[in-house]
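Annotated sample (chain length 392).
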Amino acid sequence: MKPRLSLAALLVSALILNACSDDRQTGGQASTPPPPPIEVVQAESRQVLDWHAFTTRLESPEIVQLRPRINGQIDMVDFTEGSMVEADQVLFRLDPRRYQAQVDQLSAQLEQNQTALAQARREAKRAQELQQRQLFPQEQAEARLSTAQQLVAEQHALEASLAEAELQLSFTQVRSPLAGRVSRAIVTKGNTVAAGQSVLTQIVSMDPLYAYFDIDERAWFEQYAGEASLARIPVELELSGQAVQQLHGHIDFVDNQIDSNSGTLRLRAVFDNADQRLLPGAFGRVRLASPSQEAALFVPESAVGSDLSNKFVLVVDTQNTIQYRQVTLGKRFKQLRAITAGLMAGDTVVLNGPAKVRPGMVIQPTISSVMDEYFAQLESPSAIDALEVSQR
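Output written by the structure step:
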């Protein structure tokens, strides 16, 4: 009986091992993973404005170093340092006593002259009447007329001297020649100042402000030289620390020649500053739009990868297999990058480039909507973030 039981046991063991082997084979087929879902976008062609970026520093149209026109001692500083001042506002007052005394003296001399002149004219008139009746010598009549004429000349000289003295007196009140923001008082009360030499303070006009920048002559002749007026072309200004551009201006000046040393042409943009948010001397970046829109093929910047000196994107073919595609880059427009060669409109591109996948992989493509979001941002000129250095 024992041999028969052993044979039965062996048969049962063989059946169990065979079942386990089938289970392992079935389990191996079930563990094969499906293709991973990967976000993709389609390369899209759009009409966009080409923007050029230039660095600049804001400048005030008018800057005045205020100096006295006469010598004197400062009696009063009549303004708040750092405040806005109006044109013709008194900022400094000099000691007026010496100049006032000169005005008073000349006024008295003029009054004395006018009295003498009136008397001389009466005597000359009386002498002329008597001389006509042969009752007064002709020579004396002519002498009295000459005296009156000399007093008239003296009156004119005194009036000119008085006007000069009154002008000098008015200069004891040092006024602002323009409206703007005043700096600190460099010379204070009690100090003596020299005419045309001592700097009292500085005033800068605040509205509008200028931004000068230099454009390459090639870009100028390619895009702007044929424009009758540059005033219509959008210009934007971004200051340090500002994440979003909100300042819009216009071109109001183009220089009359190209700098032969640098090969650039100087332009000037004007920006309104009624709210005083801008300050002269501030560093910023000027964006100048192209005169007309251009067609370009776009993919997200995140889709572009680097391979030594080459730029590439990963394209998904009809079998959902990833292919390597070398491309030539154009300018960057915020999160989008223009592609000038290597792609066609409608090509499916991996959104995040080589970050998660590699050529030859089979994936499950998932269309992303980020392209619509990125293009929506470009619809507002203030959101465009074009880089001057583009061929990278």
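Annotation: Helices lie at 2-30, 97-132, 138-170, 217-224, 370-378.
Annotation: The first helix runs from residue 2 to 30.
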